[in-house]
């Protein structure tokens, strides 16, 4: 269902002073009924800013209505951008985010002919990524000495819990026209490129957008390539079409994640320079040893080379894991953020939602919005860093939500348990609430709470600069809505604890009368946690991983532990989903899995 509010949908139209006035006039003229309803809602809204709020009062006009489900989808898209773990745990992305790669950044590309690509091709942000996609020579028995990561037949993909998940093809090899997987014994090459002019017209696709499946992970590319929603998203075709579409406004390429972050560069000869073009030595020659030995010595040597290969794959996986924190070499400009969320229905289930099948009108609105914004190019410093804000919100409230949820999930109805629950709720919420309780309203407890809630939300959600696009207004409204729901939980927890302590200490009465209040609080906390979907923060390993291990989040494309999320996942509602807790892995985990497969 299309939203009736075209101003809420994330258009990247720049707002000049003139257009701001026109925009405000349009809002007023939407209809008298809507205006009155919004004003009435705003007046009664417990999150209405107090006069002493640090935010200019006129910014309140930028707060637009959005459901908590849609607000959470936008919030998580912003928070998960360029974070590997988030991208895998919420694999089907819904965002198109203008990106910027600074001058001097190194990019990597492997191929089999040593020639600079003359058209769109893939690059990796980490050399370990490219290194794992270049070949080694075959031994005399005709077996290649490296482990490949192609799709096994009938693999269990994220969209097919019963096996046989479909895969889209790159249609020409991932790393160039000289395919490193050919059976010849020619040396393969590894390029290092350096960005000589900032790549200001890149697009980030959130989610597991390089998964090579037909279950939604590649829908954003299908939209920009104007592909048939009933067909497969062929990677090579999509790359050619997207770069062809972007040629008129100078599109540099796009960014996505596989087992690590990669990109497609549309023109390697425009803003990149070759730093090195290295023919990679054969593995055995690097060691000064023959390709193989006979007998028992050969078995032992084969085990050694398998361990070396497993370590290379672990290095690749570890580099991707490092970017759970964030891929810091890429910058984002949220002023041009595009999404179908709040324009049409998008499922809140991040494993089931699809956007390639949305209406053509919404698709064209997204495409036009990107074109309009990218003509001028990205400038990450020009707008508010919304991801900095979402990170502060998650870091602050994720532990508190878990602590409060645990408190109301474990109580029994005996007096000592109820008193312990009241104390826990108070300990976990009191300092947060007290920080915003203004003594000026001490004679009006209701007003004191309303102003405290408003100030609490404003503390965490605010513009760092004047909003410059409707996209920023959508993000602001989404963050405000999510944070408001969490602040509600904090205050409800505080009030429940306070009521119970007053009953115990002042009235010296039993606490059984508060059981329904606790049950209502439990339902409220559970509803908020399930709706905001912060699993990327809540999921963690059940032990501290050792120095030679990482806490591994399974990926959905090719990886050292199989294709399509076969490892570390479970089936639920017809989809493979990532297990919680996650598992610590080392190179030995990869080695053992490969031995078992063989």
From TrEMBL:
<feature type="compositionally biased region" description="Gly residues">
    <location>
        <begin position="151"/>
        <end position="176"/>
    </location>
</feature>
<keyword id="KW-0812">Transmembrane</keyword>
<feature type="compositionally biased region" description="Polar residues">
    <location>
        <begin position="1"/>
        <end position="14"/>
    </location>
</feature>
<feature type="region of interest" description="Disordered">
    <location>
        <begin position="134"/>
        <end position="188"/>
    </location>
</feature>
<feature type="transmembrane region" description="Helical">
    <location>
        <begin position="27"/>
        <end position="44"/>
    </location>
</feature>
<dbReference type="InterPro" id="IPR038921">
    <property type="entry name" value="YOR389W-like"/>
</dbReference>
<keyword id="KW-1133">Transmembrane helix</keyword>
<keyword id="KW-0472">Membrane</keyword>
<feature type="region of interest" description="Disordered">
    <location>
        <begin position="1"/>
        <end position="20"/>
    </location>
</feature>
<protein>
    <submittedName>
        <fullName>CYFA0S05e00518g1_1</fullName>
    </submittedName>
</protein>
């Amino acid at each position: 269902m299309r939203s009736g509010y075209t101003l809420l949908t994330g258009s990247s139209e720049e707002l000049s002073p003139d257009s701001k006035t026109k925009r405000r006039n349009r809002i007023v003229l939407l209809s008298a009924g809507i205006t009155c309803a919004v004003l009435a809602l705003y007046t009664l809204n417990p999150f209405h800013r107090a006069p002493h709020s640090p935010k200019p009062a006129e910014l309140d006009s930028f707060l637009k209505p959005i459901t908590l489900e849609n607000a959470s989808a936008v919030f998580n898209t912003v928070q998960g951008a360029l974070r590997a773990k988030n991208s895998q745990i919420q694999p089907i992305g819904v965002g198109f985010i203008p990106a910027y790669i600074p001058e001097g950044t190194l990019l990597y590309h492997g191929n089999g002919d040593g020639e600079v690509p003359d058209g769109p091709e893939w690059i990796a942000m980490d050399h370990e990524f490219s290194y794992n996609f270049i070949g080694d020579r075959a031994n005399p028995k005709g077996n290649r000495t490296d482990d490949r990561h192609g799709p096994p037949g009938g693999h269990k993909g994220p969209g097919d819990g019963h096996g046989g998940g479909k895969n889209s093809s790159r249609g020409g090899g991932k790393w160039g026209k000289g395919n490193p997987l050919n059976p010849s014994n020619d040396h393969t090459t590894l390029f290092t490129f350096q960005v000589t002019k900032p790549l200001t017209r890149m697009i980030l696709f959130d989610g597991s957008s390089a998964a090579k499946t037909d279950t939604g992970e590649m829908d954003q590319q299908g939209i920009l390539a104007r592909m048939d929603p009933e067909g497969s998203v062929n990677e090579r075709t999509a790359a050619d079409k997207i770069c062809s579409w972007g040629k008129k406004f100078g599109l540099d390429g796009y960014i996505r994640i596989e087992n690590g972050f990669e990109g497609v560069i549309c023109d390697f000869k425009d803003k990149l320079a070759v730093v090195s073009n290295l023919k990679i030595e054969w593995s055995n020659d690097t060691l000064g040893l023959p390709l193989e030995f006979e007998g028992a010595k050969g078995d032992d040597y084969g085990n050694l080379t398998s361990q070396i290969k497993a370590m290379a794959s672990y290095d690749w996986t570890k580099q991707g894991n490092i970017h759970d924190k964030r891929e810091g070499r890429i910058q984002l400009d949220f002023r041009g953020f595009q999404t179908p969320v709040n324009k049409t229905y998008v499922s809140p289930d991040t494993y089931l939602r699809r956007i390639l099948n949305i209406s053509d009108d919404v698709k064209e609105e997204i495409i036009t919005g990107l074109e309009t914004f990218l003509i001028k190019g990205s400038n990450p410093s020009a707008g508010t860093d919304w991801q900095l804000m979402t990170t502060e919100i998650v870091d602050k409230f994720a532990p508190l939500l878990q602590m409060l949820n645990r408190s109301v999930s474990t109580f029994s109805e005996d007096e000592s348990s109820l008193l312990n629950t009241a104390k826990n709720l108070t300990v976990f919420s009191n300092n947060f609430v007290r920080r915003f309780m203004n003594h000026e309203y001490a004679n009006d407890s209701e007003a004191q709470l309303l102003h405290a809630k408003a100030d609490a939300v404003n503390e965490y959600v605010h513009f760092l600069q004047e909003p410059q696009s409707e996209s920023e207004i959508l993000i602001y409204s989404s963050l405000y809505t999510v944070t408001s729901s969490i602040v509600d939980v904090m205050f409800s927890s505080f009030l429940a604890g306070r009521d119970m302590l007053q009953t115990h200490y002042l009235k010296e009465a039993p606490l059984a009368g508060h059981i329904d209040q606790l049950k209502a609080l439990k339902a409220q906390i559970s509803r908020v946690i399930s709706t905001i979907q912060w699993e990327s923060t809540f999921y963690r390993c059940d032990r501290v991983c050792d120095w030679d291990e990482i806490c591994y989040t399974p990926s959905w494309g090719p990886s050292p532990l199989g294709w399509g999320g076969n490892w570390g996942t479970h089936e639920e509602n017809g989809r493979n989903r990532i297990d919680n807790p996650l598992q610590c892995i080392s190179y030995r985990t990869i080695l053992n899995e490969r031995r078992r497969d063989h």
